[in-house]
Write a structure and sequence with these properties.
The chain has about 200 residues and is mainly α. It has a single domain, classed as Four Helix Bundle (Hemerythrin (Met), subunit A) (Up-down Bundle). It contains seven helices and no strands. About 25% of the residues are buried.
């Protein structure tokens, strides 16, 4: 039997009901569902404010997209490395799993640093939470609230990934940490998907 087959065989019980592993996955799905509602409310509120404001600034002109497009590409790449981490762990290779988890965390950390740079640049240009020189004051409020809320999720995800790297290292076998890495992947892919929506609605449209 191949290492991959043996690992997947060992984790098969995690997919059956009423086990600690499946409860962990269910808990993450419930958390993400609630989080999705939160982001949905924020984006819907943003759309409502923009639709009813006569002097809403054009985000494309104010924010620009070059840096943010690169940040988006970086997060998409980090989703790929997250998939590769789980794939290597499924094959029994913890070393490569940790390497790709590190790349995922690094991508998230760079994203947060880029966002901090973007914020500082926009603040220097006059965008504040209670006003801006281009139009509706709620533009700045909504921008900092939504991107900041997402940035907190990315920061939390980076911390989560670092802890999972240690968890994978300390577990007795690859199979023993597979479910935890899979749950981490659910969270990270959600964060990436939300950013694509934020980028689309707040920067492109």
């Amino acid at each position: 039997m191949s290492p991959s087959a043996s690992v997947h065989s060992a984790i098969e019980p995690a997919e059956t009901p009423l086990t600690p592993e499946s409860w962990g996955k269910l808990g993450m799905w419930i958390f993400l569902a609630g989080d999705a509602v939160g982001f949905g409310v924020l984006l819907a509120s943003y759309g409502g404010m923009r639709a009813t404001s006569a002097d809403w600034p054009n985000p494309y002109d104010v924010l620009g997209i070059n840096l943010t497009a690169a940040m988006t590409f970086l997060l998409i790449c980090s989703s790929v490395t997250m998939v590769k981490a789980l794939e290597w762990l499924g094959g029994g290779d913890r070393t490569k799993c940790r390497m790709f988890l590190f790349f995922t965390a690094l991508g998230g950390a760079i994203f947060v640093c880029c966002q901090a740079y973007e914020w500082s640049k926009l603040i220097h240009e006059g965008l504040h939470i209670n006003g801006n020189p281009w139009g509706a004051s709620l533009f700045g409020t909504s921008f900092f609230l939504i991107t900041g809320f997402h940035g907190l999720h990315v920061t939390g995800g980076v911390i989560y990934l670092v802890s999972i790297i240690r968890y994978v290292t300390n577990r007795p076998s690859p199979a023993a940490s597979y479910n935890a890495v899979e749950i981490t992947g659910l969270y990270w892919h959600f964060v990436d998907l939300v950013w694509i929506m934020v980028f689309t609605f707040m920067y492109l449209i």
